[in-house]
Design goal:
Elements (H helix, E strand, L loop, with lengths): L5 H14 L27 E4 L14 E3 L2 H25 L4 H33 L5
């Protein structure tokens, strides 16, 4: 009966001897899968330089490419000029009217008050003429 189960004892012993290989670097077959991210940009500038290589790991915030900056720099210059013009306009509006403009407005207001007073004085005489019988 003991000889009948000898082959069962032989299998673990052979497995242990085979697994005791002292050769360096154990090799495994298979593949590794990484995470790929596709990038896009809404601008149409030309790419001047690619700053990373294929299969290179990158970290958050790292520059990946350098774009042509001609269009962007021009857009910034135009917007800075627009900003300066709007800031000057705002300063002009908040500084109040100029003395000459205020003098013109005051004189127009005085003329309007005088015209209103004159019209008020003439109103009774107009009523008299309007209510009196007119000759036919």
């Amino acid at each position: 009966m003991f000889s009948r189960y000898n082959h069962l004892l032989l299998f673990p012993l052979l497995s242990a001897l085979i697994s005791c290989d002292n050769t360096p670097g154990v090799l495994f077959s298979g593949y590794a899968q990484g995470e790929f991210i596709y990038l896009s940009h809404e601008a149409t500038e030309k790419i001047d330089a690619i700053l990373v290589k294929k299969d290179q790991s990158v970290r958050k915030g790292q520059a990946l490419v350098r774009m042509e900056s001609f269009n962007t720099e021009n857009a910034v210059r135009i917007e800075e000029k627009n900003y300066r013009a709007e800031a000057a306009s705002l300063k002009d509006l908040t500084s109040g009217e100029r003395r000459e403009e205020l003098d013109v407005i005051r004189s127009q207001l005085t003329r309007a008050r005088i015209a209103a007073e004159l019209a008020k004085r003439q109103l009774p005489s107009i009523w008299i003429h309007a209510t009196s019988p007119q000759p036919c």
